Amino acid sequence: MKLSTKLLLIPTLIMSFLTLALPANAFSDVEAGCPYYVAISHLEKHGIVDGYNDGTFKPYEDINRAEALKMLTTASGLFSAKEMESLDKETARPFTDTPISAWYTTYLKSAKDAGVINGYDDGSFKPEQTITLVETLKILLESYNDIEYPEIADYLFNDTPDYEWFIAYTTYAASKGMINVYNTNTISPDQEMTRGYLAEIVYRKIMSDDYNFGKATFYGAALDGNYTASGEIFDMYAMTAAHKTLPFGTVVNVTNLANDKKVEVRITDRGPYGPGRVIDLSSGAFEKVASLGTGVINAQLEIVSTP
Predict the structure, then answer these.
(1) Options 1.10.1040.10, 2.60.40.10, 2.40.40.10, 3.30.720.120; which CATH number does 212-305 get?
(2) Alpha-carbon distance values, 80 to 63, 87, 165 (Å)
(3) What is the pTM of this model?
């Protein structure tokens, strides 16, 4: 992991669970079309994240380990900003490279005491170092007390062998659709995190009890007029979709996470089967939430009704 120099200045991240009456696009650099638009807007509305003094969020910039720890433990409800502010920094130096006066010291001490973080073998934490995907998942999931991990064998990827220390965390995250699965059936566990992707993971964890997440694709003219798996004739302009397991006739609300556009579809077919893909919309339905040229979108699925 490389040392991030972009985030050495303390950001003005103010985090709490107080609901704020702010516009959906509160940040000048997070408009509809940003892949993290819905996630960042939701977290900002609920006081989990704030941006910089210039009104930006900088979703594509790296996020360091100290910033990430604060966001992740606040989002999980493990700590509150008010609670951290009340602690005495003079007695809270948990790691050798943690200045007593640093804004993040109380978070590090509390997280260490709670068993959420351990640091490195040399006694350091490297707070200014960019956090990785698997480090993010460990901190976030260890901040919860009620995690039930699924069978590892069901969620292995080409770059996640079952002997890795992080396999339980990536398994859970994959089962909840919290992380991106790439076309090579990989997740890049050691990738350095951006502020936007971390916000996306937090959002998906918070919402995972009510929604499913993954990639949505479309199919159209090539199969128009053919029979679907349900026996219906496929109409590329109808509001229908394919899903691997949902009963035929199930109605699903699909949201494009890049622009918050929604479409309601009825399941009439089976698929898709590519890595990370959860629903295949008719081309007519896909055009309601994105241009066909987009091809694939990150989507949120909510079951409206079942037959």
Answers:
(1) 2.40.40.10
(2) 20, 11, 29
(3) 0.88
